Amino acid sequence: MENVVIIGAGAAGYTAAIYCARANLEPLVIEGMQPGGQLTTTTEVENYPGFPEGIDGTKMMEKFRAQAERFGAKFLQYDAVAKADFSQKPYKLEMMAGDPIEAKTVIIATGATAKYLGLESEQKFMGRGVSACATCDGAFYKDVPVVVVGGGDTACEEATFLTRFASKVTLVHRRDELRASKIMAERTVKNEKIEMAWNSVIEEIVGDDSGVTGVKIRNVKTDEITEIPASGYFSAIGHKPNTEPFDQLEKDEVGYLIADGVKTKFEGVYAAGDVSDAVYRQAITAAGTGCAAALEAERYLEAQEG
Which residues does the UniProt record annotate as the domain FAD/NAD(P)-binding (predicted)? Predict the structure, then answer.
């Protein structure tokens, strides 16, 4: 039986592993199918303290992992949790491939997955002009045009944020009015640096070896196809939290885990990072909650022993 099982291997999971390992808890990290999480889809991270020159997202996560490993964290690769049972102790995790795992405490750090349209060209230019995080990548698009797809509050927020850097932001929406809250929609439409492409859908991301060079859109009423010059394409149609195995935990209407800080309704079970954060979704906030979850797990285990 494990003292601490950490499900997920992004900024939150690896940070939790560092803290638990330094407390001699020998945590087991279930890395899943995408070790490193969302940061592995980002080429350059410039807003994480301690890296003044920036750092490749994958390399950054490799450093996190190496630090956790140095202190004695264990790792389970190429397997994921199929179902978690928190109804009795020790907690039981059914795995996709391997044997079930029992744990005294569990830290859930499975993150959230950005939604994309599913175009082949989105995948082709991922990290080379295609992004789902304006806060993360907006600064790379100074004085160049970009395209944002979406129609809700997220799309309006991303488009507005990008006006700080881009020469022009085209917001593509399939309808003739935004789904965003009224004040957010009005603010977006009135912004001089944002051009609305109403009644339109994305057909294809185009580019070359240097990355994205344009976006083809189709007007749903006329079927006319137009290519918009752009150096960046931002998907702003939402995120899907990776919470399917955790049916016993409370979730909001989107599926994010509901926690009091990092504490779920089951003692010794914690949620950290984007799996319970629909607001900030940054590496540093994920790392912070990973730290908090580890400290809570350590205190819980100490109290049980006492």
Answer: 3-290
Whether residues 148 and 57 share a domain: the answer is no
Domain encompassing residue 228: 120-235
pLDDT tens readout for residues 47-77: 899 999 999 889 999 999 999 999 999 999 9
Catalytic residue among 56, 85, 133, 260: 133
Q: Indicate which residue of 56, 79, 85, 137 is catalytic.
A: 137
Cβ of 140: how many Cβ atoms within 10 Å? 18
What 3-state DSSP class applies to 278?
A: coil
178 and 199 share one domain: yes
Report which secondary-structure segment, H or E, holds 169: strand 168-172
Distance between CA atoms of 188 and 190, rounded to whole angstroms? 5
Number of CB atoms found within 10 A of residue 260's CB: 8
- Burial environment of residue 273 by CB neighbours within 10 A (0 to 12, 13 to 18, 19 or more): buried
Neighbours of 142 (CB within 10 A): 11
Same-domain status, 184 and 258: no
Instruction: Let me know if 137 is a catalytic residue.
Output: yes
Instruction: Please say if 291 is a catalytic residue.
Output: no
252 is catalytic: no
**pLDDT tens, 183-239?**
999 999 999 999 999 999 999 999 999 999 999 999 999 999 999 999 999 999 988
How many structural domains does the chain have? Answer: 2
Q: Are 287 and 12 contacting, i.e. CB atoms less than 8 angstroms apart?
A: yes
